[in-house]
Amino acid sequence: MDDNHPANPVRPDKATAEISPGAIRPTPPSATPAPPNEAPAPPHPPPARRAWGKRVLLWGLLAAALAAGGYFAIPWLKDALNTVSTDDAYVNSHPTFVAPRVQGQVVNVLVDDNNRVQAGDLLVQLDKEPYQVAVDRKKAALDVAEAKLKQARATTQATAATARGLRYQMLNAMQQVRGQVQQLQGDVATLKKYRAALENADKEYRRVLRLKGGESVSREEIDARRAAFLEADAEVRAAQENIRKTRAALSLPIAPPEGKELGYTPPDLDQSHPTVRAALAQMIQMGAQLGLDLPRDADTPQKVLETFHLLHADSKYEEFVRNLIENAPAIKVAHSDVEQAKADLKQATLDLSYTDIVSEIDGVVTRRNVREGNNVAVGQALMAIRPLKDIWIDANFKETQLADLRIGQRVRCEVDMYGSRRNYEGRITGFTMGTGQTLALLPPQNATGNFVKIVQRLPVRIELTDYNPD
Fold it and tell me: What is the pLDDT of residue 297?
């Protein structure tokens, strides 16, 4: 190192530039000769080329920033212009409140809050013993009712047999009346014959009496004619008595009505005779026990048989009796008692099964408020089960955002607990016909005139599609 030269060479203080319109021209440094023993300074790049490179770099960075901004901003801007969104939304569902159908004491609780359950899983058990006793009692009552039904069938069949016998008795009485009428007609004919014989005997007797003084008529002939006359008269009297007896048996007056012959009988005597009416009354009484309802005008056997179409064939009567037995009031009452006992037994069995409280849906247990030893009443809420499948989202949009919303439109949902990492697809399924204020217990009253416009929010229901409940 030479002592005549300083250690540090003299550097240019600053490069200045003279700017003129249209060009940037550099000003050369002062012409100071370099020391002879120092290496020459490296040549500086031309200022114009360095400025041009910076300009290119700046424009490239700006273009890259614009491209990146466009790549991310254009979808966001497009999404913001074509969609509406809200953060006032929550997941909703219809919870199932678990309540007992029968009262009793809790003996076992098998689930706790936040437990997942399936439909049919046992949740709570009540004391079964009282309901088992009720089932046993109802079974015994059913046995008694069935025994009474058998007894009623036997009694009804016996009553039907009695009614059948009374029917034959009535028909026999009618036939006897007809026979007595025929006998009356025969007695009248016999009386006429005897009267004719009496008239002839009277003529013969009178003739011999006129010839009594003559020698041609003996005493013996006169006595014979007289005896024949008396015999004919006795036979006439006997025939008259038979007629009176027959008329009395037919419940007819001894003497016929004025202008009528001795053999006259009413045309419906076989229907109105007392013995026939008595048999009919007994048969009607038996029929009433079998549930037979006769019309008021059915007061003769002919009308009764016509009413039930039983005039000719006995087979129809037997079928009629069988149907009458099946529909008899006693059997119906006993059969109703059996059905009632069966229904009571079924209800008691259901009550016994209700002591096992099971889940009706798949879901998660919440709000459990029961434990062993509690006495619970019918309908008391023991817990709630929130479903995982039948859920939806209630999104409260401002009324100013509803202009373009329609049922069926697609919805993208971002759940807060996942952030933007997971989206769920859904569709609009309905709009609530009222805002929160109008559906409140105490809605606001704006009839005073002091009205303040407040943008309301309307709940929009969104159904999720193709989501995994788990």
Answer: 56
Asked if residue 125 lies in contact with residue 372, where contact means CB atoms within 8 angstroms, the answer is no
Q: What are phi and psi of 413, to 5 degrees?
A: -115, 130
Determine which of 136-150, 176-190, 314-328, 336-350 has the lowest per-residue pLDDT on average: 314-328
257 SS3 class: coil
Q: What tokens appear for 160 in the block?
A: 């039907």
pTM for this entry: 0.59
d(CA 324, CA 163): 11
- pLDDT, tens digit, 9 for 90 and up, residues 382-420: 999 999 888 999 999 998 889 889 999 999 998 888 877
- DSSP letters for 3-56: TTS-SSPPPPS---EEEETTEEEEPPPP-PPPPTTSPPPPPPPPHHHHHHHHHH
Q: How far is Cα 163 from Cα 310, in angstroms, rounded to an integer?
A: 14
CA–CA distance, 163 with 157 (Å, rounded to integer): 10
CA angle (402, 406, 407) in 5-degree steps: 130
For the chain, the straight-line distance linking the first and the last C-alpha, in angstroms and rounded, comes to: 85
